[in-house]
């Protein structure tokens, strides 16, 4: 993350952080200076939180994959393709149509998507009515469809960039440069909040997947599986979908600034990046 901090400072023509604030800023700009400091602090806090959650998510990813494969083997399948072939061989009518809709929404490019695919595919065999219910209430277009909408790519973005640039401590700078730094940090902070929220949502679902694969109870029983998919998954979708939306991140940040009594006079308007619109 250090390189990202340095790149932001270099971009604005600012000195490296660590010097005394009183030496770095014009006395006439205390509010701008404080806002830069607040935003920098927030960004660093979000990066720390993201890395903590990502570490847990990575652990879950490995565990879920292992348990998913053990689950498939216990049901007589070598892989997901075998499971898919079985569904397409036994499903018919509305059940088959619902399964086709589901397949279009899951790319199977990550463990998260594979786990979801495995669970819904198995449900299509044992409790096809539950799958129809999931499609009907648009659960599949909510959290189930997130990966297809770029969720996983979004979560990976932060790490692939080495983190967003997050430093704006400056000295002997013009007010215009200070405002530019605020604008960039403001946008970085929003992206980080969205990333943290979405990663937390995906982690919640990973725990649900893990519990499904390690608890063999009821997975062969239509009524139990229908309850699990039609109620538990539906409720999880309803509780996490609001957290996924970029608007939730904006609300969180507005509340945070208000609670901290931050001066926001130089902040730009909130604009949701296109990649986070859904």
TrEMBL record:
The chain crosses the membrane at residues 115-140, 146-170. It comes from the Eukaryota. Keywords: Membrane, Transmembrane, Transmembrane helix. This is Uncharacterized protein. The lineage of its organism: Eukaryota, Fungi, Dikarya, Ascomycota, Pezizomycotina.
């Amino acid at each position: 993350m250090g390189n990202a901090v340095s790149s932001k400072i270099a971009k604005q023509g600012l000195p490296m952080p660590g010097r005394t604030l009183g030496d770095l800023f014009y006395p006439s700009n205390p509010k701008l200076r404080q806002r830069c400091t607040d935003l920098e602090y927030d960004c660093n806090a979000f990066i720390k939180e993201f890395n903590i959650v990502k570490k847990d998510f990575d652990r879950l990813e490995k565990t879920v994959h292992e348990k998913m494969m053990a689950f498939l083997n216990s049901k007589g399948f070598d892989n997901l393709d075998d499971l898919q072939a079985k569904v397409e061989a036994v499903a018919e009518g509305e059940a088959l149509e619902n399964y086709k809709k589901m397949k279009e929404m899951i790319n199977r490019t990550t463990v998260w998507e594979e786990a979801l695919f495995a669970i819904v595919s198995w449900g299509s065999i044992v409790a096809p009515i539950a799958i129809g219910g999931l499609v009907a209430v648009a659960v599949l277009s909510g959290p189930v469809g997130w990966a297809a909408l770029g969720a996983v790519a979004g979560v990976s973005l932060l790490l692939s960039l080495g983190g967003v640039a997050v430093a704006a401590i400056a000295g002997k700078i013009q007010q215009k440069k200070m405002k530019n730094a605020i604008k960039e940090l403001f946008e970085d902070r929003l992206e980080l909040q969205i990333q943290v929220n979405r990663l937390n949502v995906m982690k919640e679902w990973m725990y649900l997947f893990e519990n499904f694969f390690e608890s063999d109870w009821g997975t062969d029983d239509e009524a139990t599986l229908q309850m699990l998919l039609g109620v538990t998954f539906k409720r999880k979708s309803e509780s996490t979908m609001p957290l996924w939306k970029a608007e939730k991140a904006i609300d969180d940040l507005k509340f945070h600034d208000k609670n901290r009594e931050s001066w926001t006079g130089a902040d730009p308007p909130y604009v949701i990046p296109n990649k986070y619109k859904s």
